[in-house]
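Our platform keeps sequence and structure together, in a single record for each protein. Such a record has a labelled line for the sequence and another for the backbone structure tokens. The tokens are whole numbers drawn from a learned vocabulary of local backbone shapes. The remainder of this section carries one protein's record, kept here as part of the documentation:
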Amino acid sequence: MLERLAQRNVYAITSFIFGMDNDTVGVAERTLGQVRTWPPGLPIFGLLTPLPATPLYKRLEKAGRLTRPKHWQEFIPFAMAHRPLKMTIEEAHAEVDQGWAQAYSPEALAAAVDSLHDRPLGYRVNIFLARLCFRGIYFAMTGKRAWVKVIAQNRRTIFKLAREGFTAGAWRGAPATIPASPVSQVEAIETTAQAAEG
């Protein structure tokens, strides 16, 4: 399904909830391992939140697992309101942190852009800017210092996209011609062969 959407230049926002009863330490890496096999999208990560008057809330309340029974009165983003079964609250927080940090690292942003090497430049710029903005859901992007830092961290991808923007045909649908990082001859041959077949 995600592949078919990507063929039509639609990239999914996928949401993952950690802290469920069967989650264990390592759930973020297992989830990211699967996400990396999909077309680039906008993954988001959160913690299971027992909302009042729901069966989940009642079950956790009855089991004595609620740590903040009136959590909605004191909203704290990305904070557990109950004790998960197979990991600690701190471990659940660490899993969410790892999910965001790895999914929106400079390397992950570059990989998302590179995965669209056969698409027009506008699509690659779009996924880069969307991921940069989605990164701000978890990592505070307030103030000039935060933006300067994230731009510096992603400078290679930014420079690659900017250079390509001055290449003839880049905006009219010509595929990328400047790799973000060195590409081995085997990868270059495979990419060229795939482009010729497609």
In short: Residues 51 and 57 are 6 Å apart (CA to CA). The chain has two domains: 1-102, 104-198.
